[in-house]
Write a structure and sequence with these properties.
Four copies of one chain form a homotetramer.
Chain A: E1 4-9, H1 14-23, E2 29-36, H2 45-48, H3 59-62, E3 67-68, E4 79-82, H4 86-98, E5 102-105, H5 121-124, H6 129-136, E6 141-144, H7 148-163, E7 166-175, H8 187-190, H9 201-212, E8 215-217, E9 220-222, E10 227-234, E11 241-249, H10 255-263, E12 282-284, H11 293-296, E13 305-313, E14 317-324, H12 328-344
Parallel strand pairs in A: 1-2, 1-4, 2-3, 4-5, 5-6, 7-10, 12-13
Antiparallel strand pairs in A: 7-11, 8-9, 11-14, 13-14
Helix pairs in contact in A: 1-12, 7-9, 7-12
């Protein structure tokens, strides 16, 4: 099968670099276009990108000429993955969709928009029904993945919601620096320090969970009625968002049942063999001091959610700790998994150059 | 007034050093004895102590000869403050109390013991009634302060409990490295990492809050009926425990009321002018990204609890962030404030050398 | 004596904040004007300054109205201290000098300019001769202090140069984050990392040492003939530049002599009792693992240079480690000490409002 | 070819874990025995080892039963690689050698011993002549690799020494935490701090360079006459030793020549195709702020030495920055490369069980 040609919008940022890293050598997709800001356009990827994931950007893309993020410059691509900042995404993503592109977005711009599926493949692949008619008509659409700190949470809540029902969730996040991008915090801010605010993050978590766990009724998503409260913190780790969660289930469950349900979770993609899908979406650790960001963030290539310390909560009944790689599972890898899901479901098409 | 002569048990550890730092030049107390392990005994304080609070241990104590933590070696002291590890404290503190010493303890050994007051002066000075008869009879006793992460929490909950009632609390802590003492975590553990466990800590918080906020009935403390759930994390900061808290009040309160109640809290020590007491036990910050450990831990000499981000919690009703200096307010400063309270209440006496 | 009224140019940056911190309560100077960029002008200091040295900017200045850094807005000041970035300083400092102000500058703009003394009071107070005639004529002038990493080095070299002669110096610096200012490195750059470059820094060190240790001949400075080679590194500490130095002396010296010469160094300010002068410009530590930034940077209020590990160098003869607080001794404190020196030498005058 | 069966002495420590990581799936060697302290013996590798290189120890060894480091327990191995601490190594390694084992050691115990080759394959493979007769007689011997901070330095100096001669070297190291092992520094020591001492390290570097770059004359190594001076610092990075070096060459060289000589260095192993050998022992970077530990330590699987900032030194003529992965190139990978060299040179033999 010839690979789909993918364009990356926002290819020089941190999530963009993660996308490049994972798309080089991808079995289903090949990088056709790299888009960035006006300032970068025209220079090679190596020149315009300050590569931070190791010594050098992959040889396969280093000489690639960077483009502006405009529809007419991505004519040679079948679809695009967007790692644009929200502001730019707000204008750019609809333009691509209107031009007929499937836009697999990591930005927050349209996550809450009606008609735009907010998808974590293991959890709510069925929400893709929202774009199936557009797809059938070879029209463009936007599919998004959730916020980096929502992803790990929702993967963990999904099997619990299905089996026991979930009523209330209080989550405290300890989020890594890479979550704020290349131009985020200054170094002095996080030396010997923690910042107890990530602007907009708590609201995103509190809102996105309900949409993702919502039930599709026709082409409408009915939000799940789960009360979610988030406390977000930026800590001085590089990668890996850790989350401590208290959960009230709708019906009582023994801890052993919870462990069993989480550990055996396969999700809605089990049968599809998506290249980026972890063999198990959730890995359970039994040590009392795990998961830890540096040790566990790369489990299953950064695509697993690692859960530990499953224990009773004196207030809500159940508590646990989870970790997921914010830049992989929570961003680039999540978007890529969505793209793979679209491909597997026949929702990507080969564009023919106008 | 001649100062009371104080002996420090466990003077070379991290809390011991903080005690030394704060007792040098203290208006009511003078250091008479410095106790440490067998290994240190006989050497000067400078020789036996690896001072970590700056360039050098204070000149006033550097040549002081360190003693073993035995009753007969502290004959020249009026009372002792104990910064011993729990294991050693379990045997040593009762020995001192039985020999007639007032033992102001920072250890966890007897916090939950009946008859031992667990005191935060602003919150429950009245619990000292438990030892008043012992004191009157010039007999020894133990008074303790809570766990370093309990202190900030309970100072914040106290005015809320008094005004609105508190039913449920979920707290996530981001605790500093100094909380694990001089021999705690190895350096590689916390580089680019977080450890989601502090052994025993969650249970201490969940239990101590109820005792401290409990009501004294005669010489018995009736625990407050508050369900508390703690998630504890060790992060790579040096000092200052940050805590994100969700609270269910017994009766509804507007956020403005909460701010007012917290900000105007004076506590039970307001009139006593204790030397270590902060002018306000709680400082409110209105910025959306505060308190932060490095910026706010030294507020009021490390004795204030700094509270910020007071906002609605979708699950429990109210949430906020608090910070207190674990080694000062949560340990050495807290113990010292207890000692000052005892002095002000006439519960310390001058021992006469046998 | 009525204090001189000082204006701070660049008052909201990191060095500016350190100046404010040290000028509040200063016995000889009082803050009259706080200058910052166009953007800040007109707002209060608290509003325009992101204070990073603790909870809050000092109450004494928080309501102060910030001005633009223009001569006509500092009419009520007797002199100015400049913490401006080099670019702005290049235009602003001469304007103030031409208007008759003594400009005590921390910027690098005019350090190498002929006629501008580059002064570390303990080392080369006599270089002030360069501006004495200007001062006598009540005309303005610029006096500068060296680069933050030059200061500690030159304080250490000065007594060695005087007693033994210094021929060659190789210095490796491990510089703190605060040296790059509020808008310096991004947080991800220094997590689990070191950056082996500080732009322009090596050249500054290699050049400034010769000027400062140079001999004044009339109103000209003849540079000292010392070959200096610097290797500069940015590490993840907050404050305190550590420097490991190999030195070739002009005539052989026993290590004990070196220790004696360094430890007894008083410098050219010994008799002047300048308020910011450390009681000893150099503190010697005998432990094999000192100085360390966090433990030793605040020695003598951050104004001492702490030297340790004095030992033979197999290549150049002598090696040692030194530490100085980059933002205090190496910047704000150094500039302030220069201002105090000017005052003590009668080189400041009270300006009368036109 | 059937793989040689290797035993790892000290398999649970940090270097031992790196050896395990690199030996799993190795084309020439298979792990036959894992040795550790008395305390660990009898338990599985997973139980006895606190694995710190990711989520879990490799499945291939996790159930392996750990042995004591005694000759009679390694009867099923053809040779051993020792990652023992110096103290234990001093007794254990000779016992294995006397029993006929080839002992490939990473410890410092016998590096300076006459008759023991101190080998970096690219640099001085010919030094193996020292053990060739022992090997021919099927007797045991010890071969060592240098200190973790010596390796990168000597790989860089070797081509310069061969082409231009090297007379003097001053090196400042910024060494990572993993260099101090699992039981090294406490976390509080390196928060916002640097430690300017690594016990014994400077002497090792200053001595080992001369032996490695020495000339073999018959079965004797004549040390190279190079004056080396080292300044060692521990910084808060996890892996990767950075070294800033000033070098005096014996005959002048243009910078371009230096770049060419370093960049084209193939070393003495070029023809052997050792599995762990990097394709280029030295990688040159042209950016002014590289190499950096986090970005460059894993170049060529952690086996390359990355060199940058080649520039003139005002004192010794030439200066540069180099980086090598201390735990890989400087320890486990270096030892393994030595073992591969021994195999390729026919110096390993298959032991037959007594």
């Amino acid at each position: 099968m010839e690979p789909f040609r993918v364009g990356i919008l926002g290819a020089t940022g941190l999530v963009g670099q993660r996308l490049v890293e994972r798309l080089v050598g991808h079995p289903w997709f090949s990088i056709s276009g790299l888009g960035a800001s006006e300032r970068s356009a025209g220079r090679t990827y190596s020149e315009s990108c300050r590569w931070v994931l190791g010594s050098d950007a992959p040889r396969e893309v280093s000489a690639h000429r960077v483009r502006r993020c405009r529809v007419d410059e991505f004519d040679d691509c079948d679809f695009v993955i967007s790692a644009l900042d929200t502001g730019v995404a707000t204008e750019t993503e609809p333009a691509f969709a209107e031009a007929g592109f499937a836009v697999v977005s990591n930005s927050s711009a349209f996550r809450e928009a009606e008609g735009v599926p907010l998808v974590v493949p293991e959890v709510n692949s069925d929400h893709l029904a929202l774009i199936e008619s557009a797809s059938r008509a070879a029209r463009g659409y936007i599919v998004t993945n959730p916020n980096c700190s929502t992803t790990g949470l929702v993967v963990t809540l999904a099997p619990l919601a299905e089996r026991f029902g979930v009523r209330k969730v209080i989550v405290a996040t300890l989020q890594a620096i890479s979550g704020s991008g290349l131009d985020g915090h200054r170094a002095w801010e996080l030396v010997d320090n923690v910042i107890p605010e990530i602007r907009g993050e708590e609201g995103k978590i509190e809102s996105e969970v309900g949409k993702i766990l919502g039930r599709r009724e026709g082409s409408v998503i009915r939000r799940a009625e789960i009360a979610v409260s988030a406390h977000c913190h930026r800590v001085g780790t590089l990668d890996g968002h850790l989350e401590s969660v208290s959960i009230e289930l709708a019906r009582p469950a023994a801890l052993s049942e919870v462990v069993e349900v989480l550990g055996s979770f396969k999700g809605q993609t089990g049968a599809l063999s998506l290249p980026s899908a972890p063999s198990s979406p959730i890995l359970i650790r039994s040590e009392s001091d795990r998961p830890q960001p540096r040790l566990d963030r790369d489990a299953e290539g950064g695509m697993a959610v690692v859960v530990g310390r499953i224990r009773p909560c004196p207030v809500l009944g159940l508590k646990l700790v989870l970790l997921s790689h914010n830049a992989v599972r929570g961003a680039a890898g999540g978007a890529l998994l969505n793209a793979e899901l679209l491909a597997a479901r026949g929702l990507l098409s080969r564009r023919v150059r106008g």
